[in-house]
Design goal:
The complex is a heterodimer. Chain A is α/β, with parallel strands linked by helices. Chain A is built from 14 helices and 11 strands. The longest helix of chain A is centred in the last third of the chain and has 24 residues, at 357-380. The mean pLDDT of chain B is 92. The chains are: A alpha/beta, B alpha+beta.
């Protein structure tokens, strides 16, 4: 990652990123660009450098923002008609912290509307194409950010991961994707999806870069009561795995999983062995319930969090309505995409009186069992290894008519969303057709840096 | 009709007097402010903003709970209650459905009856809608004000008068706990009353009359509902379970429009807020910092033989009850007079603007003692009493004030008698007194001299002479 200094001008870094964004416009990574403000900030940083003033650890580094992070640069649309014209009056804590270190937002990237989806096909502004194959999906919901990093437009980009929305597009595009421990990075100023599993993370091309970005974003924020105290404080080289053992979750290596994906994960396991880890196959039978738990808990929280979009105070408001109910109905009908509505309906159903115990409460109890299952394994292993998704990037349109098939894409990523554990998508190889495939490293809560240090060791030594 | 028994339950929303709102850090006092002046992104539910709990509200809840003799739940948490209305910006209200902060307890009413409290939960207030013809306006100043909703338990109350007593006592307790500003006119306490009537032990169908904001309207609405329900039943009809509104002008309840029956609020734990976990030490510390409660004062003032209305009028003002209690501690026989001053002088309409904090318990005791000793007439006592509530007199003792006001009556026989009694029983005067008793009237000069000395020359020697003679004859 190039950082501005006396020899490298911030303006050049930003201009280069903007040029590349233009060059790769066809991929449709961005919903909006922030050209004028980005260049203005770059010039300010260059002036400071010339004067010898401090400029921060990310001086002049251009980055892209998933369009669900609020900031004063451009509209925060969440890729939804509902927020098409929404100009935020506040800036997300994560963005503030990066900007304080000199990083510069060059544009806002595409996503599934309100982050509902795994392919960025649910965007009100059109689909984002895979960096390796224009006919395939970018993955999602943070598809635009993943592709922007994979194409080299920016050295890093922000995403949000609620059930795999950073990890899966990272895998589909061959870049690092970090879903941190729940609470590591403030959720303040990011359009909420499912509050109990929403995490803020990043895409980068090396473990070292990813660590620096996360280190800057992480830490207690008084505006988000679920943030953890500052624990992301070490250098990756200071970290030594205690057990030197990694568990390979076999439940995610069997039927229904693409053979090339399986072999890439096994290859990565061999690399881990090469750098001194013992690999053991482990079983996690409870994991197969994770998807069912997730698709109860998440829609419930989604339905609740989307209640505020009522056309009264901000965002889209239907032009025509007869009464208050009509205002709500028409506004929400026009402002939400089909997938948003589906989740609102599922969520309201599982929360409705008489069904709460059978669905939501039961799901939360099962969630505790899932956490116990992962805790048990992580007592024995430094980390767990498994695929990120059952397959490489699929074709655009291939799964859109089958929501259930689309949900199955999340089967390997949702478990640790529910347990709150950190999981990193590590670029691991390519299929014969040239499609990138990542592997997933899973760790105990607060072991984010341990995962990145393991990935770094493999990246540099294997 | 007397065989019908009414059962009444009350839910009271108490606005807590914290400096800032429950979750947004914005000014909680919107009195005299422009609409939408006290609003932050959290209050208008901007995307991506999160609630942050105001810890001061937790302390207020604990104080309120302790005042009601309630169990304080060391672990409580917040839930979301969903419904759509323009004065509910998030589309849900943050409340405590499953684990409220205040558990069950008992409130003792002045008439000796008891009301059970089921629980009290902390929640945020909604905004205020005002409707005009074909449009409505929303004022978010109130959105996010902390509310403690106090819910009574069965067996409930059985008359409108008892319900009123309960509401008044609840108001007193909340004032004693310093949990609310207690201004009913500003909606600081709002009551929802559930009323049913039945001839058997099985409860009848209840109605809920919402948003009553005065003790009188609580009493009247319940009276009306009891009569109405009995009349419906007597005519062979059925009471409909419904939500009613109260019209103070017509004195009638009527079904509230727009309130749908059986709303499904889709309650869900709020994932944005960690559970509230308190330690017993924290609760104990708050308990230790709380003063006496109305019920404590009622038993303490029992010996004063005050009439109920005077006693309750004083107890309505925690500061007055505290002062009276101080006087009791110093000399209980001086207290009834102070109580009388409070009830009939200080709380008289024209004196309600006084700063009740001004006179101390010691001063009030001293003043009462002066009257007791006839150094002041009772009329003069009242005058000095009121003067104590004048800020410019704060540094003056009652005696100094009385002197300044020229109200001291040392020539008064009563006051003189006290001095004479003191002189006659003093050992150095024993011989002179004995001589006078034996008819040696020369000795009286010495005694008169002693009295003159003690009264600092203010006594009338002729009166003193007469009084001594009378006493020693």
């Amino acid at each position: 990652m190039k950082i501005a200094d006396k020899n490298t001008k911030a303006v050049e870094l930003v201009r280069d990123a903007l040029d590349k964004a233009k060059k790769f416009e066809a991929y449709h990574c961005f919903i909006s660009m922030n050209e004028a403000r980005a260049l203005e900030r770059a010039r300010e940083i260059d002036k400071k450098i010339a004067k010898g003033e401090p400029v921060g650890r990310l001086a002049g580094v251009p980055f892209a923002l998933k369009d669900n992070y609020l900031s004063r640069d451009g509209n925060t649309t969440a890729a939804a008609r509902m927020l098409e014209d929404f100009a935020a009056p506040i800036t997300a804590t994560a963005v503030k912290r990066l900007e304080a270190e000199g990083a510069i937002v060059i544009g806002r990237t595409n996503l599934d509307a309100f982050a509902h989806g795994g392919s960025t096909e649910n965007s009100y502004f059109g689909v984002t194409h895979n960096s390796a194959d224009m006919e395939r999906v970018s993955g999602g919901s943070s598809g635009g950010s993943a592709v922007a990093v994979a194409l080299g437009i920016v050295p890093f980009a922000l995403g949000s991961d609620t059930g795999g929305s950073i990890r899966q597009p990272a895998s589909f595009n061959g870049v690092y994707g970090v879903k941190p421990t729940y609470g590591a990075v403030s959720r303040y100023g990011v359009v909420a999806m499912a509050s109990s599993t929403d995490t803020m993370g990043c895409f980068a091309t090396t473990a070292e870069d990813a660590d620096l970005i996360m280190k800057i974003m992480a830490g207690k924020d008084e505006k988000d009561s679920t943030t953890l105290d500052d624990y992301w404080t070490k250098d990756l080289d200071e970290i030594t795995p205690k057990k030197k053992k990694i568990g390979l979750i076999t439940d995610f290596m069997g039927e229904g999983v693409d053979k090339e994906v399986v072999s890439i994960v096994k290859d990565y396991a061999k690399k881990l062995e090469k750098v001194g880890f013992e690999i053991e196959e482990v079983k996690l039978p409870i994991a197969k319930y994770a998807l069912a738990i997730y698709y109860i808990v998440q829609p419930a929280e989604v339905a609740s969090n989307l209640s505020r979009y009522d056309g009264i105070r901000y965002g889209h408001r239907a032009a025509e309505f007869d009464d208050l109910a009509g205002l709500y109905n028409n506004t929400r009908d026009e402002g939400f995409m089909t997938e948003n509505k589906r989740r609102i309906m599922i969520g309201n159903f599982v929360l409705s009186s008489g069904f709460y115990d059978a669905y939501y409460l039961k799901a939360q109890k099962a969630r505790t069992l899932l956490i116990n299952g992962y805790n048990e394994l992580l007592e024995k292993y430094d980390a767990l290894l498994c695929p990120v998704a059952p397959n490489p990037a699929f074709k655009i349109g291939e799964n859109t008519s089958d929501p259930l098939k689309m949900y199955l894409e999340d089967v390997m990523t949702v478990p640790t969303s529910l347990t709150g554990m950190p999981s990193v998508s590590v670029p691991a190889g390519k299929t014969k057709a040239g499609l990138p495939v990542g592997v997933q490293l899973i760790g105990q809560r607060r072991d984010d840096q341990l995962l990145l240090s393991i990935a770094k060791t493999v990246e540099e030594q294997a | 009709m007397s065989e019908y028994k009414a059962t009444i339950g009350i839910e009271c929303h108490v606005q807590l007097n914290t400096k800032t709102k429950l979750f947004s850090g914005v000014d909680n006092d919107a009195v005299d402010k422009e609409p939408n002046a006290c609003v932050s992104p959290v209050d208008y539910a901007l995307p991506g903003v999160l609630p942050v709990l105001n810890k001061a509200a937790i302390e207020k809840c604990v104080r309120a709970g302790l005042a009601m003799n309630c169990k304080i739940n060391l672990a409580s948490r917040f839930d979301r209650k969903h419904y759509y209305y323009p004065d509910l910006p998030k589309g849900y209200q943050i409340t405590q459905m499953y684990q409220p902060i205040v558990g069950s307890g008992i409130i003792h009413l002045p008439d000796g009856s008891e009301v059970k409290i089921h629980h009290a939960h902390l929640e945020e207030d909604a905004a205020k809608s005002t409707h005009y013809g074909d449009y409505s306006l929303v004022d978010l100043n109130r959105a996010g004000t902390p509310l403690l909703e106090i819910v009574t338990d069965l067996p409930g109350m059985h008359s409108a008068a008892q319900a009123r007593l309960y509401c008044e006592e609840l108001h007193r307790l909340m004032m004693y706990a310093n949990a609310t500003n207690g201004d009913l006119y500003q909606g600081n306490m709002r009551f929802d009353v559930n009323v049913s009537v039945s001839k058997t032990d099985k409860l009848g169908t209840r109605t809920e009359t919402k948003n009553l904001n005065s003790f009188r309207s609580v009493e009247r609405a319940i009276e009306y509902e009891i009569k109405r329900q009995i009349s419906v039943l007597e005519k062979g009809g059925e009471v409909k379970q419904q939500t009613l509104g109260w019209n103070d002008a017509t004195g009638k309840t009527s079904p509230q429009r727009g309130k749908e029956e059986a709303q499904d609020y889709r309650y869900m734990p709020d994932p944005d807020l960690p559970p509230v976990v308190l330690t017993q030490e924290y609760v104990d510390k708050i308990a230790a910092s709380m003063g006496a409660m109305p019920q404590d004062y009622r038993s303490k003032f029992g010996v004063l033989n005050l009439d109920d209305s005077a006693r309750e009028a004083i107890i309505n003002y925690p500061i007055l009850a505290e002062r009276l209690s101080e006087v009791c501690d110093k000399d209980v026989k001086l207290a009834p007079r102070v109580a009388n001053w409070f009830a009939s002088v200080l709380l008289a309409e024209e004196n309600l603007d006084k700063d009740f904090k001004l006179a101390t318990g010691a001063e009030l005791t001293e003043l009462s003692e002066m009257v007791e000793k006839k150094e002041l007439s009772s009329t003069a006592g009242k005058e000095v009493f009121l003067a104590l509530y004048n800020a410019k007199n704060t540094s003056k003792t009652p005696h100094a004030l009385a002197k300044e006001m020229n109200l001291l009556q040392e020539n008064d026989e009563g006051a003189l008698e006290a001095i004479i009694d003191e002189v006659l029983t003093a050992p150095e005067c024993a011989k002179a007194a004995e001589d006078v008793r034996n008819g040696e009237m020369k000795a009286i000069g010495f005694l008169v001299g002693q009295v003159m000395k003690k009264s600092k020359g203010k006594a009338n020697p002729a009166t003193v002479n007469e009084l001594i003679k009378k006493k020693l004859s």
